[in-house]
Specification:
125 residues, 5 strands
Length: 125
């Protein structure tokens, strides 16, 4: 599957219409981003049911600011509209595949239960 260019205009649509979205926050001038790009591309081809998207932080400053992106590349994984992973730094191909595999195995019922419990605890404080 082709990598999707994610902007503030299509972010909600991409995340809401796909179960798993792996996002690379990057910039043209960033050396590690350029090194990571072919790894991201190759990994995207191994997971046809996962959407891989890129956010150019120079063009999408509002979106990068919303997610408090302070270092690039930053990798984020959103599953069923929940951010499960968000960390700066390029990763080797095997690590990216391992991450995607782990994210696909996460029990989202348990995640949603934990979120609901945390929200209930916070509102009762």
């Amino acid at each position: 599957m082709a990598i999707v260019e994610i902007t503030k205009d299509n972010f909600d649509e991409v995340v809401n219409n796909n179960d798993v979205v792996v996002i690379d926050f990057w910039a043209e001038w960033c050396g590690p981003c350029k090194t990571f790009a072919p790894i991201f591309q190759a990994t995207s081809e191994k997971y046809p049911d996962v959407v891989f998207g890129k956010v150019n932080t120079e063009e999408q400053m509002e979106l990068a600011g919303h997610f408090d992106i302070r270092s690039i590349p930053t990798l984020m994984v959103v599953r069923e509209k929940v951010i499960l992973y968000a960390k700066p730094g390029a990763v080797p191909a095997q690590s990216l595949e391992t991450l995607v595999d782990k994210m696909l195995k996460v029990d989202m019922v348990q995640v949603r239960d934990e979120i609901a419990s945390a929200e209930a605890q916070q509102s009762s404080s």
